[in-house]
Amino acid sequence: QTVHDPQEDPTHKIEMPPKKNQDQRYTSPLEAQRNATKGQTFAMNLTVLRRMDPTIAEVVDMAGHVVVYNFDTRSQAWAKSDVEGSLFCVRRTVPPAHRVIVLNRSGMDNYELDITADALIQPESPYL
């Protein structure tokens, strides 16, 4: 909210912090800028992702850099794959409704995992 008194010097104005509800915490201008930037980032990436899959409705979340590992059942160990890049959790307009996509910076093939009832996802910090 900007307060401006026309009787005063017209080149000066005072920025007032927005009023907040009791249930809402104050958002600083810097935090608001960060949030807007995240939203703009999501929107830009949504455009890129829709070129691959037009059924993507929304970017739910993202990580700037991930590496995909595969579990080798013979050696009982994790092996690094040739896929690394930005990870996106997206919501789609057709089933399956949710998907994880890694846009591969190391090769031509991206990684996609549909999030269904059959998907096995185990968080083991710092891995997922």
Spell out the blueprint of helices and strands:
Blueprint: E1 2-3, E2 14-15, H1 29-52, E3 56-72, E4 77-92, E5 98-104, E6 111-115
Antiparallel strand pairs: 1-2, 3-4, 4-5, 5-6
Walk across the major sheet and give the strand order.
3-4-5-6
The H/E string reads EEHEEEE
The structural class is alpha+beta
Radius of gyration over all CA atoms, rounded = 22 Å
Shape: globular
Describe the structure in your own words.
With 128 residues, the chain is α+β, with helices and mostly antiparallel strands. It is 19% helix and 38% strand. It has 1 helix and 6 strands; from the N terminus they run E-E-H-E-E-E-E. It has one helix at 29-52, and strands at 2-3, 14-15, 56-72, 77-92, 98-104, 111-115. The strands form 2 sheets. The protein has a 4-stranded antiparallel sheet. A two-stranded antiparallel sheet has the order 1-2. It is globular, with a radius of gyration of 22 Å.
